Amino acid sequence: MTWRLTLAASAALLGCTARPPTTLRYELEPVPRVEVELEGEVVQSWADRPAPATAPTAQALESKPRVTRQQRREELDLKSRTMPGWALHESAHYFILTCVQDTKFIEELKQRSESIRRAIQRNFPHPDLDPVPIHTAPNVIRMLEDADQFHSYGGPGGSSGFWSSRIDEIVLYDDLKGGGRRETWATLNGMVFFEYLNSISGEAEAAPWFLYGHSDYYSGFKFVDGKHQPAPFDWRKGLAKSNVETSQIVPLEEFVRFTRQQYDSAHPRRTTPGSHYAQGWSFIWFLREGQTSKHWNPVWDKILDSWWSAWRKTGDANAATDRAFAGVDWAELQAAWGAFTLEL
């Protein structure tokens, strides 16, 4: 499926008018990803949150023109002035372009985007991004007013947001009149993860279990007293537990070798793409939060850091997997992950 941002769709953004609540809802257990073509750029996605790509090196960043924060601010301010009802807001790491008039919501958006970014950075530190250097102006969060406007902008059916590296934008919408802002915030968390990794790593893809598992891991974070804290992701937890109970899972030793195509396809073991995303989330949740479990083996402490470090150096997902899981007893890991998931 391909979606294009046409002139007519662009014109729909020039005014910010009231619309009846949309009846289109995305599935909490996703169907396979689709492709979005945004002015010539194809953004890969899956049903409830389109996904970008990341890469082991920052070479792609070198080819981007260096725009200062002030230049980007002036450009966006000029654009907003040509679109009735739109306004430009700003946080430490993001420009926010929106026609949503709820000032409390916008302030919360600023706080949440900065907070989840800090949470992500704790696991993926990169000193070059803090503070944002003058030659890498902040990326944009484009907050649309509802699902109709989001889809007119190029968002795929069944989706709630996407990250576009070509235009440096996170695009999502205020779901107050639909599923509620809980879903908006979950989408924001996952998209900030994609945007952050893309900012430090470029365009080639990491292994899907690592990339999408982490996106869902951060999507589940709860915002408490101005800070994000890890919490199981409701959109994935139920299916993850059910699949472990019924053995509708892929053995982890095989799962961590999945390509993007395998991740988004039905498997001979009768697992579905939705099952793979649920398994990816639950495996990352276990590796990030399972250290206090009675099932935990300390030899697993460095798996994620080792994988990320090796992939950043080599760009080879299989080589990174070899290094991260060297010496691991797969039967022990499989049993511990399964038991931990059932206890969620």
In percent, how helical is the residue content? 40-55%
Task: Quickly give the structural class.
Answer: alpha/beta
- Number of DSSP strand runs: 9
The profile of the biggest β sheet is: 5 strands, mixed
What shape does the CA trace take? Answer: globular
Q: Name the poorly predicted regions.
A: 1-15, 17-62
Strand content: 5-15%
The mean pLDDT is 82
- How many domain regions? 2
Distance N to C terminus: 35 Å
- Biggest sheet strand line-up: 3-4-5-7-6
* Rounded radius of gyration (Å): 20 Å
List key phrases describing it:
globular; 344 residues; disordered N terminus; alpha/beta; five-stranded mixed beta sheet; two-stranded antiparallel ribbon
Question: How is this structure best described in words?
Answer:
The protein is of the alpha/beta class and 344 residues long. It has two domains: 7-204, no CATH class; 223-342, no CATH class. The protein contains 14 helices and nine strands. The strands form three sheets. The chain has a five-stranded mixed sheet, with helices on both faces. Strand 6 and strand 7 (169-173) form a beta hairpin. Helix 6 crosses helix 7 (208-219), helix 7 packs across helix 11 and helix 12 packs antiparallel against helix 13. The protein is globular, with a radius of gyration of 20 Å.
Topology diagram in text:
Layout: H1 7-11, E1 34-38, E2 41-45, H2 59-62, H3 69-81, E3 87-90, E4 94-98, H4 103-123, E5 139-144, H5 147-152, E6 161-164, E7 169-173, H6 181-201, H7 208-219, E8 222-224, E9 227-229, H8 234-245, H9 252-255, H10 260-263, H11 273-289, H12 303-314, H13 317-324, H14 330-342
Parallel strand pairs: 4-5, 5-7
Antiparallel strand pairs: 1-2, 3-4, 6-7, 8-9
